[in-house]
Amino acid sequence: LLIKNLRQIVQIVDDSTTEFLVGEKMKDLKILNSPECKLCIAIGKDGKIQYVGEEEKVGILPPDVEIVDGKGGVALPSFVDAHTHPVFAGDRVHEFAMKLAGATYNEVQKAGGGIHFTTEKTRAASEEQLYGDLEKILSRMLQSGTTTIEAKSGYGLDEETELKMLRVLDRANSSLPIEISTTFCGAHAVPRGSTELKQTELIVDRVIPLIDEAKKRGELKSVENIDVFCETGNFGVESTEKILRAGQSIGLVPNFHAEELTYIGGVEMGARIGARGMSHLEEISPSGIAAMAAAGSAAVLLPSTAFILRLTPPPARRMIEQNVIVSLGSDFNPNAHCLSMPVIMSLACITMKLSMEEALVAATLNSAYSIGRGASHGALAVGRQADLLLLSSNRWENLIYQMGDHSHLISTVIKRGNIVHTRK
């Protein structure tokens, strides 16, 4: 594939060794500009980038090369959504009025809503129904420029349904044009009729060994991470560590919810055990920020959730100033129904005071790092996977500035060198 006639190429970085950017470097993007629209990107049959730069220097092309006209627009990396819950049944639109009236997250859950409501619907749904709903959701994510996601189970809370959700995600990863880093999140909540201790024992003694057996059989290949909702009223720090370490013992990487509603010290524990990512972080402590920076753990910030729940946003500026690896996720789920990373970037700029450059890095290179893909995804450089967007715009910033109008701006989405979406 040869993409030509580009006015601007936003590379983020121009190498295949930089896995993330922190601090002031988040504002120093590698961007190529050509007022004459003479920039191009060449992609090999292996789906990797072979050349980025001026058209006249691209060299000899094979006779079967497919030409894509950039029409004087912009190329930039497609988005990596670092935190999603896309497999579920039913919706929770009826809870929105409760939240608008002032009900807290825990109050909604105690009233029979929240995760428990979705769990009932998901347990009752067939595997085919869940897959069909997921396929529609992923199609809309793709159209919004997202080509790689982290995706969690967690609306089953029992052995059968959690494995059903993992199978759905694994099937989607192998059959749909979007890449999925699957996360086992059986500790998303304590199910009704159980206790924190019982659910912890179920996960550690029963479900994690079943996942291990399935992976050894060559199944559940996309299951890479383990998550726990480490929070007051759900799983405390001790239980969370026990579950995460059990996941580590079978090769799963800790990437978990921490310090969203209350501070309980989950971040410090996560940094100590080498968590790759921790999400939410609205109530993170100064010591937690320092621990994340030292450990190289990615802070996965979720602007839509804080916005919808009217929470004080996490201290993103303090994190950036202290060289924490800041990334972004949509947290798409029945409680926060936003699947557009351009909207997430806009919210991050407005509510968390990120610059547009910082938001773009957080939604591409740094979010790729949070799921172990920082050296291959999230930037346009030779040797990296060819995951990118073409914009019908003369500046990439319009994707953030023109909030919610991304369907008008994104003309083409490319995954592994294949065109997977074109605007009609």
Q: Give the fraction of residues assigned to helices.
A: 25-40%
Main β sheet profile = 8 strands, parallel
How many beta-strand elements? 18
Number of helical segments with 4 or more residues: 16
Quote the average pLDDT: 95
What global shape is seen? globular
Class of secondary structure makeup: alpha/beta
Q: How much is the radius of gyration in Å? A: 21 Å
Beta percentage is 15-25%
User: How far is it from the N-terminal to the C-terminal residue, by CA?
Assistant: 21 Å
Report strand order across the widest sheet. Answer: 8-9-10-11-12-13-14-15
How does the SSE layout of this entry go?
Blueprint: E1 2-6, E2 8-12, E3 30-33, E4 39-43, E5 49-54, E6 67-69, E7 74-77, E8 79-84, H1 96-100, H2 105-110, H3 114-124, H4 127-143, E9 146-152, H5 159-175, E10 179-187, H6 196-216, E11 223-230, H7 237-248, E12 253-258, H8 266-273, E13 277-280, H9 286-295, E14 298-301, H10 303-308, H11 316-321, E15 325-328, H12 341-351, H13 356-363, H14 365-370, E16 388-391, H15 398-401, H16 406-409, E17 410-415, E18 418-422
Parallel strand pairs: 1-6, 2-7, 8-9, 9-10, 10-11, 11-12, 12-13, 13-14, 14-15
Antiparallel strand pairs: 1-4, 2-3, 4-5, 7-16, 16-17, 17-18
Helix pairs in contact: 4-5, 6-7, 7-8, 8-9, 12-13
Model description:
This protein has 424 residues and is of the alpha/beta class. The chain has 16 helices and 18 strands. It has helices at residues 96-100, 105-110, 114-124, 127-143, 159-175, 196-216, 237-248, 266-273, 286-295, 303-308, 316-321, 341-351, 356-363, 365-370, 398-401, 406-409; strands at residues 2-6, 8-12, 30-33, 39-43, 49-54, 67-69, 74-77, 79-84, 146-152, 179-187, 223-230, 253-258, 277-280, 298-301, 325-328, 388-391, 410-415, 418-422. The strands form three sheets. The protein has an eight-stranded parallel β-sheet. A six-stranded mixed β-sheet has the order 3-2-7-16-17-18. Strand 11 (223-230), helix 7 (237-248) and strand 12 (253-258) form a beta-alpha-beta unit. The chain is globular, with a radius of gyration of 21 Å. Keywords: Histidine metabolism, Hydrolase, Iron, Metal-binding, Zinc. It catalyses: 4-imidazolone-5-propanoate + H2O = N-formimidoyl-L-glutamate. Its EC number is 3.5.2.7.
